Recover the amino acids of this structure.
């Protein structure tokens, strides 16, 4: 153990810019893994993550590097999640490091999220090494990319080096630069001080329970110690500590400056909060590491089994997912339209999508997901504050004094050609407020907006990509809650309120959205023997209306089912569910209708 020779780094890169390839190359050059095993071993993330090109959780890796200066350095490479939903996790992983390699694909240029993560690294006082990857590609444009990096994050153009993770050219130089310029962890704390260790990640193992990924800032820890997790003041006895080389390898102890894992009989991943500080029960520090935040869901949606009998199965699957996903929350709920299900909280839309897909793939459960909603804060006339995650539980407009909704800071990097359309999308279609524009290199601009998260989570990303033919990239970050002129719109079918169809909309779009929804519903609800009015209601008046004409007798046989049965080959379990009609008063509403309308606003 010589902390002078430890280097703790992260690699900041956009998806597909070559992070995995670079780490593979480093592992190979330092003979850390047999080549044959490389793919399975390093960053052996879930199949889904690989397909999507996102890594949410991957193990850190320790390598030993024989430097040109004659020393053997221990380099820990800590991975960071590659998606905007996980910004907090990224910041905690960076907090475990002294340096970061900013890796940019020379044929792609800098993407918005890379800029954000680089700023996070700067906030954590990391030494940043800029590198351009894929210089072997004939269409790569290293000089332009270097200018972009200089404009966006202020790294000197002369300090940015070039490499090819594929051929290995330049990788040796990068390793030399890491050991030369990234500080050792010595100045951050000593092994003689009280134990202070950061939890930067955690996973659940069937046999071992929760495995904490940690960076020791001061003191040391070994098997048999009783540790205290400071956020919730809980204690556990340590049964094993070790390092990632790259598979888990037990060691005697972990000491200041080192990165490794701790197993301490923790059963519930919610006990091991990312960002929390670990200390010793017998000799505790009184000062926690800075930056701890409790993770809070940003987006809620209802999750329902297609058919009531799969409710129990769904509950078990969610419990299993939760073992490894502290950010996922769920509580049972009942909706008159959908029956029994769960209200789930997610960090963002990608997180939500991942949960849905894992339920489908790993547990073979088809679920119906209702439209996602942000968390609104309402101040009632009685003075009481109420948080609402489900539009159908929104208090009536008359009882509300003020409504607040979450806003985000949105950054978009784009070639200037698409600027006009992106401004239009963000400001006109999406209620965003333009803040400023700046240049990045010769061919790109950065647009800054502030925008309601409710508008961002629907289809902003897809629209932005379509408008810019894939060239623009975005990143957003929650800023605050702002007072907003929102209203609850209630839908009446045949004069009866249907709770599951209520939605929240901004005053300026209330008419337009209501119009679309009543029209859509009149398409989706089959004709009955009587005329059915469909109405949207807000602030004491009907703001949109459409009518389903009464049925003529001779077509009765054909009408039921027709459109509803067509798409059903896909998912068997869901099929049973969709056939069901919900009886609302005297009107039968197909479940499809509940879902289709949720997609409109
Ligand atoms: P990650 O998503 O950042 O981990 O990216 P990967 O390492 O998976 O790389 C994405 C793609 O770029 C893969 O097809 C790699 O083979 C390719 N790639 C990575 N580095 C280089 C490089 O230096 N040159 C070339 N030509 N291709 C590369």
């Amino acid at each position: 153990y010589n902390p002078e020779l430890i280097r703790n780094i992260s690699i900041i890169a956009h998806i597909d810019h070559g992070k995995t390839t670079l780490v593979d190359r480093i592992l190979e050059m330092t003979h850390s893994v047999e080549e044959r095993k490389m793919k399975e071993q390093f960053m052996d993330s879930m199949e889904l993550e690989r397909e999507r090109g996102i890594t949410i959780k991957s193990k850190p890796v320790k390598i030993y590097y024989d430097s040109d200066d004659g020393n053997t350095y221990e380099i820990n490479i800590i991975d960071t999640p590659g998606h905007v939903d996980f910004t907090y996790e990224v910041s905690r992983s960076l907090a475990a490091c002294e340096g970061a390699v900013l890796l940019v694909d020379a044929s792609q240029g800098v993407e918005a999220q890379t800029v954000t993560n680089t700023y996070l690294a700067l906030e954590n006082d990391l030494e940043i090494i800029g590198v351009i990857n894929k210089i072997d590609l004939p269409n790569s444009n290293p000089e332009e990319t270097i200018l972009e990096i200089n404009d966006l994050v202020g790294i000197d153009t002369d300090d940015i080096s070039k490499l090819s993770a594929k051929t290995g050219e330049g990788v040796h130089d990068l390793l030399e630069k890491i050991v030369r310029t990234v500080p050792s962890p010595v100045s951050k704390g000593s092994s003689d001080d009280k134990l202070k260790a950061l939890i930067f990640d955690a996973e659940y193992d069937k046999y071992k329970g929760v495995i904490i990924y940690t960076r020791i800032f001061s003191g040391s820890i070994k098997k048999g110690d009783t540790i205290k997790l400071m956020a919730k003041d809980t204690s556990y006895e340590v049964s094993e500590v070790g390092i990632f080389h790259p598979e888990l390898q037990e060691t005697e102890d972990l000491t200041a400056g080192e990165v490794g894992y701790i197993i301490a009989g923790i059963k519930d991943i919610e006990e091991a909060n990312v960002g929390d500080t670990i200390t010793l029960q017998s000799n505790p520090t009184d000062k926690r590491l800075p930056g701890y935040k409790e993770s809070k869901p940003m987006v809620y949606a209802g999750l329902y089994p297609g058919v009531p009998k799969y409710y129990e199965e769904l509950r078990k699957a969610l419990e299993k997912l939760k073992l490894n996903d502290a950010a996922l929350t769920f509580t049972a709920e009942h909706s008159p339209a959908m029956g029994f299900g769960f209200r789930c909280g997610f960090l963002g839309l990608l997180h939500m999508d991942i949960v849905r897909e894992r339920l489908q793939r790993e547990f073979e459960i088809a679920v119906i997901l209702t439209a996602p909603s942000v968390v609104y804060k309402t101040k009632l006339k009685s003075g009481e504050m109420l948080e609402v995650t489900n539009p159908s539980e929104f208090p009536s407009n008359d009882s509300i004094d003020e409504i607040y909704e979450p806003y985000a800071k949105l950054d978009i990097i784009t070639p200037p050609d698409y600027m006009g359309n992106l401004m239009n999308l963000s400001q006109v279609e999406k209620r965003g407020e333009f803040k400023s524009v700046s240049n990045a290199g010769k061919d790109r601009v950065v647009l800054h907006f502030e925008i309601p998260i409710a508008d961002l989570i629907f289809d902003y990303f897809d629209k932005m990509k379509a408008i810019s033919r894939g060239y623009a990239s975005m990143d957003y970050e929650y800023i605050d809650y702002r007072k907003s002129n929102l209203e609850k719109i209630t839908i009446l079918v045949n004069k009866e309120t249907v709770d599951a169809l209520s939605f929240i909309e901004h005053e300026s779009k209330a008419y337009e959205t209501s119009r679309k929804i009543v029209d859509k519903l009149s398409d989706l609800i089959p004709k009955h023997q009587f005329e059915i009015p469909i109405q949207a209601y807000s602030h004491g008046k009907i703001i949109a209306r459409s009518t389903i004409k009464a049925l003529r007798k001779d077509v009765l046989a054909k009408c039921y089912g027709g459109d509803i049965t067509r798409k059903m080959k896909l998912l068997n379990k869901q099929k049973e569910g969709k056939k069901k009609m919900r009886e609302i008063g005297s009107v039968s509403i197909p479940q499809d209708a509940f879902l289709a309308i949720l997609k409109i606003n």
Summary: The first helix runs from residue 19 to 29.
